[in-house]
Design brief:
The chain has 8 helices and 11 strands. The strands form 2 sheets. The protein has a 9-stranded mixed sheet with strand order 3-2-4-5-1-8-9-10-11, sandwiched between helices. It has a two-stranded antiparallel sheet with strand order 6-7. The longest helix is centred in the middle third of the chain and has 25 residues. It is globular and about 45 Å long.
C-alpha cells in the first residue's frame, strides 16, 4: 500500500502479506503513518482495524488528512492491559473479512513493557507476544493485507538506541523502519531501512510531518 511520500520509493510502500515494524522516539511520525494508511485504505474502498494501546488514535487528525473519511470504515480497539491486548489479537480473526484492507497496532509493546516481573514471567510474556505476532502474520498472509506495528525505543549501553521487544519483534517483523527527528529541521523526519526482504539496509529518506500527514 502506497502512502504518498518518499517511503513509497524507499520500501516500495507497505507490503501486503507482511508485518512491518515502525519504531522511533516520541513524535517521530509512527502514529501519523498508521493514520495515513487508514486513510489510504479508505480511498481504496477498504476498511481498517486500528488497535490503539496508547490512546493515540485521533479522529480529528484523520479528518485533517481526509475530510471525506467515513469512520464506519475503521474498527478501533482500545485494550488497557496486556491481557486485554492478548484477547483482542487472539480474536482478531473473527473480525476479518475481505473488506478489511489494513491493520495497525499502535503500539505493540507499550502494555507488555508495563508488565515487568520475574525471569519466568517475562519468558511467558515473550511467548504470548510471539503468539500475537504469529496471529498478525497469518492474517496478513491469508487476507493479503499490510499489517503495521509501531514500537518504542530504549537506550542500551552495549547497542545504543534499540527497539523494544527484542528478538521476538525482530523475528516476526519482516520489514523494519526506524524513524528519527532531523536536527535543526522543524517537522522533518528521517526514515531508515533496518530490515527488508529485498531493499538495501541502511537506505533512508527524509519526509515532512504536517497536519495533513506526511509528505
Amino acid at each position: 500500500m502506497k502512502i504518498g511520500c518518499c517511503l513509497d520509493k524507499l520500501s516500495d510502500g507497505f507490503a501486503e502479506k507482511t508485518v512491518t515494524q515502525v519504531y522511533g522516539d516520541f513524535a517521530t511520525g509512527k502514529t501519523t503513518i498508521c493514520l495515513q494508511l487508514c486513510s489510504q485504505s479508505f480511498k481504496l474502498g477498504k476498511k481498517s482495524i486500528y488497535i490503539d494501546t496508547e490512546g493515540s488514535f485521533s479522529p480529528e487528525r484523520l479528518l485533517q488528512m481526509n475530510p471525506e473519511l467515513d469512520f464506519k470504515k475503521i474498527l478501533v480497539f482500545e485494550p488497557y492491559s496486556f491481557e486485554e491486548q492478548c484477547e483482542v489479537l487472539e480474536k482478531l480473526e473473527e473480525k476479518m473479512n475481505e473488506e478489511i484492507g489494513f491493520i495497525a497496532v499502535d503500539s505493540m509493546v507499550s502494555l507488555y513493557r508495563l508488565k515487568g516481573g520475574t525471569y519466568d514471567e517475562k519468558r511467558d510474556l515473550n511467548r504470548l507476544l510471539g503468539k500475537q505476532l504469529l496471529n498478525l502474520s497469518k492474517i496478513a498472509r491469508n487476507y493479503n493485507i499490510p499489517v503495521v506495528i509501531t514500537n518504542q525505543i530504549y537506550e542500551d549501553f552495549d547497542n545504543g538506541i534499540t527497539p523494544l521487544g527484542g528478538s521476538v519483534l525482530r523475528y516476526w517483523s519482516k520489514i523494519i523502519i526506524k524513524l528519527e527527528k532531523v536536527p535543526e529541521k522543524t517537522g522533518h523526519r528521517k526514515a531508515t531501512i533496518i530490515k527488508h526482504k529485498y531493499k538495501k539496509e541502511g537506505d533512508f529518506c527524509e519526509f515532512l510531518l504536517t497536519d495533513k500527514g506526511i509528505i
